[in-house]
């Protein structure tokens, strides 16, 4: 009886457990199929003992790809895995998520180091073939790449030589596409360089001869000209202009500039730059990388291209090796420093930084007769920039909500850039002359570090340029060394499943549960198979647009994506809650299109090229851009030319160079002719220039001074200093060349003779008034009829200690420093970047508002003879920002003064919020008389929770504080360092906090109270240094023009350069709508420092844009 009771009890328990497990499984987006269920046992095993000689290096762990193929046209997706030391494998899909290994009978076994696989119907017989790239025999002996031609009976024949594609380069990946639009598929081959006699990261002159051993290749399809009943291919690389020397790892083909011709992006490893090959439509390509992007990943791995924000423009992503968690960050070695960064620029390398990049397509501009796409890199704002040693990136809609998500693979066999390992090698080189012994010890040390198995990542698209990391809950984050990956609807249920090729572990097959039988649909999808013509059976190059729920999506038929892999050629679109898409448009590679209506979601449609009868409509250019360039028409020719200075000589830990803050612009009528003129400051040893407007709206230029000038002009102001009814000029100065008290940092007043001629008055400014200035503003605070001056100090020579700021009382052109009596709090008010006099409380007296780094926007009320700070009464909270600009204006036209404040923005790795502030700690750690600033921000710890850690590596900190290497003997010890560890003595410790990084407008609600309104997310792409408020479009509502960037950040942070200018159209409800630059015409290239609007002699609004180390740009506003 005991037994008969116990068994039912145990059965119940087991059923409960099984049900709970099943509920847990289906709650996750993906479930990993075990090999016992899937039949897929492929394991890309790397046996280091089989590596020749001393070939244990990162090349051995770059992995293999995945190819999705339907070998027998049964509608079930089969899978090919590339093997390195092991044979590649082909698995046939038998249905019900079960696969059979048919490698041997199919004739596709390999005995070379197979890397990437490209799936295409190369001979147009209706069956898919495979081109497999190789790194030769065991990474040492070159062998030909492989072309497996489908024999229609589940077997393949290797025919690379017969087709002219038996290339013996160290090849990574091939992609088939019709580059010359003659109807057939050509091939681009991405190559790598192994066994070079020099390090891949040596800074050598670029080899653009086309004869580099790693030069990529373009093969043209010449059809069956040789009578072989199949096409043959010819290497036309040189003729096509494919001349480069990169270490190619990734390739993606897309029509980036929407001109109907396929372009290519190539992701290159190490110091070699990526390439964006723009199709010239004549059989040649031009690399427009520098014209299209501002920076790139340093060691680019995989890449993919897709429309992430549904604006019908193709964006792209590249991967690098920046870890997300603090321990891995601190243990990852970087050789990058300012000297190396400058050396790379001097040899013509484009800026590149060690992190993932997400390049947002802004549209196009025209240079000569070329349509150039241009991109803003927003990976840090998106939240996808740090995923460690990553390989494959795939942009696809995994939850069918209508937005492209991101899947990333991760992991490396040995931790070759472990900072302690690198230090061990350096010490080894200094301690032994026996090279063989050194190699043995180095290998032992490397092997002791074990493999770096890491979780893969899955990010869901939030629909606002940002992504949410759901890796931990999606069922895909098992630690692994994962390389190539591909998506496909393996079970034909309407969602995308994932296949991942792993090193030393069985491949992952992840089944997507977004759609399941007998489960209510939360999101719908619709899929398309393409049937091209006789020369391009699968319609490669076609674009499919799906319109549903007011949303437009686009996908291109180019299955080579991510890293070494080919995805499902079937195009699957998520449509969210929309079960009936409005319409579908397919544009074929011959530029003919067809429109399909009355389609239903949760269906698969086959589209036929033969049904496309109408030409694709030519996209009309905007007829009347709101902004057009007027630089030439205005006859304004001015180039700001900085003389480079090494700011880090005194303080290695500066967050940026402060010697390149200009130029700045002042506007006013200097010759009393009723027209607005302007002054723009000059760099070190360059005079500023006065531009006098002529009667026809053009400008005549003249230098302010012809004498030697030993400092950089900073803020300036045109105002009537001496009461003679003309505009005088007060100029402030700065850079980092001299001590704070240098005479070169004393402001200079130039008096106007009434005709626009200026002479220096050496007695106007007290001699003790000296500061590295950040801003200047004029206002009659004491009500005596002349304008007084506030000068805000930008930075001191002991960063981040406060510089001096000054209130200068005007007495008929002679100024007195009254700061200590009028407002002592302003004497050392912090690092001030902007200030303005404005009557914010409508009491008819000018108050003062200032902004700067690590401070709130601060309000100082004019109480007569003094200023009193009232910031605490403003109702603004958590406003400690990295403010960079400030403008007083009545945004909402309600009769009081509002403010627009430019901040650092959100496109950085600090991810600042009140809960997770950025904090700067500073003191003289080693008592050597120098202030040591150490930036801290919240980084993930080993438990995955954000905690406060230093932003600096041990080596970076040791450059200024050498004793840190004694306090932390190893980098792994330093990885646990906190504020208390680095500053155990809190005496004299200075603390600075930033809780808000967003640019905003601050609404005046009366009685000294304000409300902060964050500007649209596009305004947060980069720091905002300059602001213009005007009704640009003539609708009676104020609009905003913003500009900025910061190219002078320290090189590990990387420059902020995602802004091309930002036009925000004002709405009636006090909100703003972003208008893309290609639509508005407001496109600014460069590091913008200032911007002013003037009215010309034709009564036209003109916007002057001051760009650091570049030409002044002028835009005309074409008011309707």
What's this model, at a glance?
This protein is mostly beta strands and 1120 residues long. The chain is 11% helix and 35% strand.
Written overview of the protein:
- The protein is mostly beta strands.
- It folds into four domains: 39-415 and 450-512, YVTN repeat-like/Quinoprotein amine dehydrogenase (Methylamine Dehydrogenase, Chain H), CATH 2.130.10.10; 524-611, Immunoglobulin-like (Sandwich), CATH 2.60.40; 627-911 and 995-1117, Methylamine Dehydrogenase, Chain H (7 Propeller), CATH 2.130.10; 918-993, no CATH class.
- 11% of the residues lie in helices and 35% in strands.
- It contains 18 helices and 73 strands.
- The protein has a five-stranded antiparallel β-sheet, with no helix packed on it. Strands 54, 55, 56, 57 and 58 form a five-stranded antiparallel β-sheet that branches.
- A hairpin with a 4-residue loop joins strand 56 and strand 57.
- The longest helix is centred in the N-terminal third of the chain and has 26 residues, at 2-27.
- The radius of gyration is 32 Å and the shape is globular.
- Residues 1-26 have low confidence and may be disordered.
Q: Which residues sit in consecutive blocks of at least 5 with pLDDT less than 50?
A: 1-26
- How far is the N terminus from the C terminus? 94 Å
What proportion strand?
25-35%
**Which CATH top level class of the largest domain fits?**
Mainly Beta
Look at the structure and give the mean pLDDT. Answer: 94
Number of helices: 18
Radius of gyration: 32 Å
Strand order of the largest sheet: 33-32-37-38-40
Q: Please state the overall shape, judged from the principal axes of the Cα atoms.
A: globular
In helices, the fraction of residues equals 10-25%
The number of distinct structural domains comes to 4
How can the largest sheet be summarized? 5 strands, antiparallel
Structural class: mainly beta
Classify the fold: give the CATH topology of the largest domain. Methylamine Dehydrogenase, Chain H
Assigned CATH architecture of the largest domain: 7 Propeller
By CATH's scheme, which homologous superfamily of the largest domain applies? YVTN repeat-like/Quinoprotein amine dehydrogenase
Tally the beta strands. Answer: 73
């Amino acid at each position: 009886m005991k037994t008969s009771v116990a068994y039912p009890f145990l059965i119940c328990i087991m059923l409960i457990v099984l049900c709970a497990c099943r509920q847990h499984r289906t709650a996750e987006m993906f479930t990993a199929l075990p090999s016992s269920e899937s039949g897929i046992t492929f394991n890309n095993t790397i046996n280091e003992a089989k590596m020749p000689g001393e070939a244990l290096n990162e090349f051995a762990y770059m992995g293999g790809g995945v190819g999705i193929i339907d070998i027998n046209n049964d509608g079930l997706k089969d899978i090919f895995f590339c093997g390195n030391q092991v044979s590649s494998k082909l698995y046939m899909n038998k249905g019900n998520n079960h696969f059979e290994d048919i490698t041997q009978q199919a004739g596709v076994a390999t005995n070379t180091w197979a890397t990437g696989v490209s799936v295409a119907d190369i001979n147009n017989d209706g069956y898919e073939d495979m081109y497999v790239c190789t790194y030769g025999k065991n990474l040492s002996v070159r062998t030909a790449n492989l072309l497996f031609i489908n024999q229609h009976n589940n077997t393949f024949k290797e025919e690379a030589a017969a087709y002219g594609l038996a290339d013996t380069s160290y090849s990574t990946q091939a992609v088939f596409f019709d580059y010359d639009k003659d109807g057939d598929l050509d091939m681009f081959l991405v190559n790598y360089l192994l066994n070079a006699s020099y390090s891949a990261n040596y800074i050598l002159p670029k080899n653009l001869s086309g004869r580099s051993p790693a030069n990529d290749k373009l093969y043209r399809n010449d059809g069956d000209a040789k009578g072989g009943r199949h096409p043959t291919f010819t290497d036309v690389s040189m003729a096509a202009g494919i001349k480069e020397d990169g270490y190619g790892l990734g390739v993606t083909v897309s029509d980036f500039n929407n001109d109907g011709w396929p372009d290519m992006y190539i992701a290159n490893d190490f110091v070699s730059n990526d390439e964006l090959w723009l199709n010239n439509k004549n059989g040649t390509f031009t690399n427009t990388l520098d014209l299209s992007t501002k920076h790139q990943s340093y060691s680019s791995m995989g890449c993919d291209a897709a429309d992430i924000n549904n604006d019908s423009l193709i964006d792209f992503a590249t991967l690098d090796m920046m870890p997300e968690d603090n321990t891995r960050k601190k243990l990852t070695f970087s050789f990058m420093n300012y000297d190396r960064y400058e050396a790379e620029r001097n040899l013509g390398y484009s800026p590149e930084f060690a992190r993932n990049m997400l390049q947002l397509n802004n549209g196009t501009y025209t240079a000569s007769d070329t349509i150039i796409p241009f991109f803003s890199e927003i990976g840090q704002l998106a939240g996808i920039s740090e995923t460690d040693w990553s390989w494959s990136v795939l942009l696809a809609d995994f939850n069918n909500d209508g937005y492209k998500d991101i899947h990333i693979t991760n992991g490396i066999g040995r931790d070759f850039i472990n900072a302690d390992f690198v230090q061990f090698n350096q010490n080894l080189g200094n301690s032994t002359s026996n090279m063989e012994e050194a190699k043995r010890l180095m290998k032992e040390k490397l092997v002791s570090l074990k493999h770096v198995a890491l979780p893969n990542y899955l990010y869901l698209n939030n629909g606002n340029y940002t992504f949410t990391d759901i890796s931990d809950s999606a069922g895909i984050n098992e630690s692994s060394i994962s390389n190539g990956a591909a998506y496909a609807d393996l079970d034909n249920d309407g969602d995308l499943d994932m296949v991942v090729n792993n090193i030393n572990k069985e491949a992952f097959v992840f089944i997507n549960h977004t759609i399941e039988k007998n489960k209510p649909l939360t999101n719908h999808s619709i899929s398309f198979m393409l049937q091209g013509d006789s020369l391009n059976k699968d319609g490669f190059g076609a674009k499919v647009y799906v319109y549903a729920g007011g949303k437009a999506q686009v996908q291109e038929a180019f299955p080579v994506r991510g890293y070494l892999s080919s995805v499902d050629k079937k195009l699957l679109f998520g449509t969210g809650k929309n079960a009936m898409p409005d319409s579908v448009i397919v544009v074929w590679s011959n530029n003919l299109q067809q429109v399909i209506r009355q389609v239903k979601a949760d269906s698969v449609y086959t589209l036929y090229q033969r049904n496309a009868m109408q030409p694709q409509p030519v996209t009309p250019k905007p007829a009347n851009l709101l902004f057009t360039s007027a630089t030439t028409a205005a006859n304004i020719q001015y180039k700001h030319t900085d003389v480079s200075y090494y700011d880090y000589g005194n303080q290695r830990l500066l967050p940026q160079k402060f010697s390149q803050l200009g130029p700045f612009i002042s506007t006013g009528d200097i010759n009393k002719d009723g027209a607005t003129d302007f002054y723009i400051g000059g760099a070190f040893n360059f005079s500023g220039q006065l531009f006098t407007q002529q009667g026809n709206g053009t400008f005549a230029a003249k230098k302010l001074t012809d004498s030697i000038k030993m400092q950089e002009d900073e803020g300036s102001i045109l105002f009537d200093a001496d009461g003679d009814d003309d505009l005088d000029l007060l100029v402030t100065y700065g850079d980092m060349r001299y001590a704070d008290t240098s005479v070169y940092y004393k402001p200079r007043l130039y008096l106007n003779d009434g005709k626009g001629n200026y002479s220096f008055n050496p007695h106007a400014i007290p001699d003790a008034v000296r500061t590295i200035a950040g801003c200047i503003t004029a206002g009659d605070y004491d009500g005596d009829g002349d304008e007084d001056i506030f000068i805000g100090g930008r930075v001191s020579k002991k960063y981040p200690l406060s510089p001096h700021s000054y209130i200068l009382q005007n007495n008929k052109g002679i100024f007195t420093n009254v700061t200590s009596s009028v407002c002592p709090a302003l004497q050392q008010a912090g690092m001030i970047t902007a200030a303005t006099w404005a009557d914010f409380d409508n009491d008819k007296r000018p108050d003062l508002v200032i902004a700067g780094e690590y401070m709130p926007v601060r309000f100082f009320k004019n109480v007569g003879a003094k200023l009193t700070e009232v910031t605490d009464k403003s109702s603004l909270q958590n406003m400690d920002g990295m403010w960079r600009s400030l403008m007083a204006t009545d945004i909402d036209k309600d009769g009081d003064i509002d403010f627009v404040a430019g901040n650092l923005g959100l496109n950085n790795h600090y991810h600042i919020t009140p809960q997770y502030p950025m904090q700067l700690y500073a003191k003289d750690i080693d008592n050597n008389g120098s202030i040591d600033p150490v930036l801290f921000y919240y980084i993930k710890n080993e438990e995955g929770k954000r905690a406060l850690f230093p932003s600096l590596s041990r080596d970076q900190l040791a450059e200024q504080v050498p004793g840190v290497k004694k306090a932390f003997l190893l980098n792994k010890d330093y990885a646990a360092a906190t504020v208390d560890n680095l500053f155990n003595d809190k005496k004299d410790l200075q603390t600075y906090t930033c809780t808000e990084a967003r640019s905003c407008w601050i609404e005046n609600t009366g009685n000294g109270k304000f409300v902060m309104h964050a500007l649209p997310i596009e305004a947060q792409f980069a720091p905002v240094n300059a602001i213009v408020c005007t009704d640009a479009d003539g609708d009676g509502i104020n609009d905003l023009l913003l500009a900025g960037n910061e190219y002078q950040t320290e090189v590990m942070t990387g420059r902020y350069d995602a802004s091309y200018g930002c036009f925000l159209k004002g709405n009636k409800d006090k909100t703003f709508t972003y208008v893309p630059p290609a639509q508005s015409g407001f496109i600014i290239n460069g590091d913008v420092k200032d911007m002013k609007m003037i009215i010309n002699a034709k009564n036209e609004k003109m916007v002057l844009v001051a760009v650091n180390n570049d030409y002044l740009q002028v835009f005309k506003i074409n008011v309707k």
